Amino acid sequence: MTRLLVAEFFKVFTTKLWWALLIPVAVVAIVIGFAGAAIASLPDVVDEAGLTAPAVALTMPISMQQTTIFAVVLGLIGGAGEFRHKTITTTYLTGSSRGAVLAAKAIVYGGMGLLYGLVTAVLCATGAMINSGTASFPSAGDTLVIAAAGTAGVIIWTVLGVGIGTLISSQVAVLIVVLIYMLFAEGLISLILRIPQLGLADIPPYLPGAGSTALQTDHGISAFADSFGDEAFGVNEGLEALVGTPGQLSWWAGGLVFATYAAAFLTGGWLVSQKRDIS
Amino acid sequence: MHDGTIEVDGLTKHFGAIQAVQELSFSVEPGSVTGFLGPNGAGKTTTLRMLLGLVRPTAGTATIGGRNFEQLGNPARVVGAVLEAQNFHPGRKARDHLRCYAAAMGVPPRRVDEVIELVGLTPAARRSARGYSLGMKQRLALATALLGDPQVLVLDEPANGLDPEGIAWLRNFLRTFARSGRTVLISSHILAEVEQTVDQVVIVSRGQCVYYGLLDDLRAGQRRRVLVEAADPSALVEAMQTAGIGSIDLAHDGRLSVSDVDRRQVGDIALAAGVALYSITEERTDLEHVFLQLTSGQFSGGQPYGYGAPPGYAPPPGYAPPAGYAPPTGYATPPGHAPPAGYAPPPGYGPPPGYDPAVGYVPPAGYAPAPGYASAAGYAPPAGYAPPAGYAPPAGNAPPPGYPPPGGYEPPAGYARPSGDGPSAGDGPSEPSPYARPQDDSAGDKQ
User: Domain of B96: which CATH number?
Assistant: First the structure.
């Protein structure tokens, strides 16, 4: 198993994909971090007490949500790319079992998700600090929780990508399907489910994207809203609609829902790969 | 260290309605190079992939050293495989490709440079596979296969894309590899490509085994004939029959085709008989032709060597002689001719496991109906061959009383593994004497 982990790490770092995807992640994080802090520092936005709103509590989750797109692409190509280039033949010929290969990939790509999440957190914070020092940060504890929850979301997306990539194994198809789902389809499905007459309005928070969003944004939204103290009425709901999803679960419940989806896809990928003929 | 014996037993694979591989059985011993031959689409690649755990068999087993691929633990240390030329990430440098898989096998990084050196890729090691030629990709694939210093090497069409120098190098390498007590299984659709390399061959056609045995035995079955254009063919035929040459055929272009005789002998007879000869040509079936006949599924009287099935040949299922096919007068099997050791009835005609001689018997290749056996339309030995009603073997060609229904048929030596535990080549129905005709003796001497 250790051998396969080392092999998968080598595979990731001997092609350009991992840093080609990390560049936009880094750029987006630093720009969003900087821009958020800049907006919060505008004279019109700073409140009477002269306090700057903790913009990082929102910009970091937003950066993390952008990072998930690149992380899932990395995971999908990690799972399906070997089928595309037919290197899966050699991989299976050199692995003790197909299950072990998939487990090694899930762990290694989870590690890549961790890297992407950490880069996002650090660069988003850096962007904010370049603009206005620590003025737009929430408390240190909140910042850490926000960064950790956001990174967890990125890790799970990457592992989920490996699972779906192994399950479907057609790289082009899997990229199209997953990106369309992430960017458009789930939003549309949620809208339809929220039509009151259908009586299905309880379902949308349990969709994978909503679970992930709750995990990545919920704590930040609370921290941001709390900074308004007594005037916070309605801010939480408004931000949920804007940054997260309406009526979303708490960050840990959303994380649990999302992790369950990832585990299901990984299991599906494992089951299918056991029976698949490599020809 | 694993014992590198490859055992394939009753291996079967169906892709939906397509029967890619049917009841295939053979074994490959360490120290030998085995050619796995057949036309494209015969099921070679599927078989190799089943052996390597990449394709799940519908039935049967394929083991290496007595174990399934999944049970090998660190499989690349036991078996190395070259399956396709294309299986590289285009953006990964060759050396990095090898480092990835060296890590997966747990072999030290210096082994990477060793195999690069071995296959002659050192100058290109730091280039990505995108810029590689097909031949370079084959070398890289071989380097990958050799990384784990395996006991068994499986190669699927490895000569594709290799230049003549590369092919020569590969041949030499495989022989050396096998001589060190290791096992090589190499597939090809061109017999000549592996002819100089292999010791034994497994020939498949349409997913079934049509020949399994030593290459030398297949080679021994090569036959020759003399084509004669005579002023008076019938006089020449008469003269030759008087001289004891029985295997005379009328070629489609009007020439006489005389099997298994010397050119000079025919010339001498013609001179003695006073028949003018306009041309005389000697031909020899080459191994490739034998291979083609084994795998083509049917033979036609119109082809250049249309005078009989080669040794080891057994009509595959679905065989039907062309309409109008009739064994020519005077055609007979030369004495001493027998299917080589290694003759294997194809599946469907009763493969050795569960072989029931009473049902599945097929006359050995080379068995030919005697003169006068007119069966233009009816000659079609079906599975469960039974002589047609009214079939009466002419005197002289009749099996002796007590003609043993080949109950004792067992695969002769060479069919079983070379350890010699099988019956010898003289056993069973391959005994030529029941078919021999006295007047053929002289012809036989010339063989």
Answer: 3.40.50.300
> What pLDDT is stored for residue B220 in this prediction?
73
Q: What angle do CA B251, B257, B259 make, to 5 degrees?
A: 140
At B63 the three-state DSSP class reads strand
B100·A97 Cβ contact <8 A: no
Q: Which helix (H) or strand (E) holds B166?
A: helix B164-179
| Phi, psi angle pair for B438, to nearest 5° | -55, -45
User: Containing domain of residue B148, as a range?
Assistant: 6-219
Question: Who's near B305: CB < 8 A, 6+ residues apart?
Answer: B225, B283, B285, B289
Residue type, A165: G
Domain count, chain A: 1
Q: How far apart are CA A157 and CA A68, in angstroms?
A: 6
Cβ contacts (< 8 Å) between A4 and chain B: which residues? 104
Which chain A positions have a beta carbon within 8 Å of B100's beta carbon? 7, 10-11, 14
Residue B411, pLDDT > 50, answer: no
pTM of the model: 0.73
Asked if residue B75 is part of any domain, the answer here is: yes
Neighboring chain B residues of A84 at a CB cutoff of 8 Å: none
pLDDT digits over B165-200, tens only?
A: 888 888 989 999 999 999 999 999 888 888 888 989
**CA-CA distance, A100 to A97, in Å (whole number)?**
5
Residue with tokens 């080669």: B310
CB contact under 8 A, B144 and A3: no
The whole domain housing A253 covers 2-275
List, in sequence order, every residue forming a beta bridge with B39; answer none if it has no partner. none
Does residue A274 sit at the B interface (CB-CB below 8 Å)?
no
ipTM, two decimals, is 0.91
Is residue B84 a part of any domain in this protein?
A: yes
Q: Does A170 touch chain B (CB under 8 A)?
A: no
User: Does the distance separating the beta carbons of B89 and A87 come in below 8 Å?
Assistant: yes
Mind giving me the DSSP string for A93-108? HHSS-HHHHHHHHHHH
At A115, which amino acid appears? Answer: L
Does residue B359 lie in a domain region?
Answer: no
Does residue B12 sit within a domain?
A: yes
